[in-house]
Amino acid sequence: MNLKVIEAKKFKSRLFGLMFKKKKTLPLLIPNCNRIHTYFMFKEIDVYYLDSTCKVLKIDKKMRPNKISEKVVNCMHILETDINELVTISIGDVMNFIKAK
């Protein structure tokens, strides 16, 4: 599965992520990250913890606003999506990304 994502490379995009977003957005890939927060978010999100090969290590479904995620061993990247956007993805699946411009 090739998933179109926005990659958060710069400080500002990594810091703000999906904060203050009310409408549906493209999934946000945060490279070199093993923990996130959902402060100032207006909606629940699904969070996918990925290793260096983009294999799914853990999934937090419907992570509520104003929470801090736990650290996941071997996590190298995090993918934030709208809830139920990737219902077919399971732990152990390897994800492929197409970066949006």
Summarize the structure.
This protein is mainly beta and 101 residues long.
CATH homologous superfamily label: Protein of unknown function DUF192
| CATH fold field value | Jelly Rolls
Order of H and E elements = EHEEEEE
Largest sheet at a glance?
A: 6 strands, mixed
- How many strand elements? 6
Count of spatially separate domains: 1
Characterise the protein shown here.
This protein is 6% helix and 34% strand. It is mainly β. The protein has one domain: Jelly Rolls. It has a 6-stranded mixed sheet, with no helix packed on it. The mean pLDDT is 87.
Mind sketching the topology for me?
Layout: E1 2-7, H1 11-16, E2 28-31, E3 45-50, E4 56-63, E5 77-82, E6 96-99
Parallel strand pairs: 1-2, 1-6
Antiparallel strand pairs: 2-5, 3-4, 3-5
Descriptive keywords:
mainly beta; 101 residues; single chain; six-stranded mixed sheet; Jelly Rolls
